[in-house]
Amino acid sequence: MLNPNTAQRIQVFSNEEQGLAALRTLVEDAEIPEDYGGTNISFRKALVDAAADPTLLRQEIELIRVPRWSKKIRSKQTWSVQQGQSLSIGIHSRSASTCKIDVIVNGKTTETIFTRGEYQGDNGQSSPKCMAAVSKVLGPSEVTFEAYDLNDEEWGRAKHYKGCMLLVGDVRPL
């Protein structure tokens, strides 16, 4: 299925250590984020630095893709908000069909958001749409999500992004 030249460039590793060793033959340790075993700043710290917002303590990020045959996908991460902190959540979606996101705070669904991509012209391209899901979750709290793709009529016509959502949480002091 792959062009032989492309296939020669692909490597598959059975564990993280082998993958990191191979990566280090191509990239210096100082260029690899510490999240992946290098000595460069972590991905999360880089995001906060790039935001250039002195009130931002950290950002939480999770990409969720709901397969068409799934009824729902539960987030893999739990976002913790400590005492004296607040969390604002943004949901970005380029999904061709409507996505439903339940925001679960301390085990209870507190808000349900519906979102879908916005379209630009007949070429089927969409732009990300962001909706603030929760204006403020106060700590101490544990936040998770359940996401659904409603598989509406746009699903069958779309040739791109289906059931994809990027959840971004900004944690700030109160």
How would you explain this protein's 3D organization?
This protein has 2 domains: 1-40, no CATH class; 54-173, Sandwich (Jelly Rolls). With 174 residues, it is of the alpha+beta class. It has helices at residues 4-8, 16-26, 43-51, 154-157, and strands at 58-65, 73-74, 79-81, 85-93, 99-105, 108-115, 118-119, 126-127, 129-138, 141-149, 164-173.
Features:
174 residues, alpha+beta, Jelly Rolls, 2 domains, 4 helices, 11 strands
In short:
It is built from four helices and eleven strands.
* Subunit organisation of the chains: single chain
Helix and strand composition category: alpha+beta
The portion of residues assigned to helices is 10-25%
Count of all domains? 2
- Rg over C-alpha atoms, rounded to the nearest angstrom: 19 Å
Largest sheet: 5 strands, antiparallel
Would you tell me which CATH topology of the largest domain applies?
Answer: Jelly Rolls
Low-confidence blocks of residues: none
Shape: globular
- Helices and strands, in order, run as HHHEEEEEEEEEEHE
Give the termini distance in whole angstroms: 54 Å
Mean pLDDT: 82
Q: Can you identify the CATH class of the largest domain? A: Mainly Beta
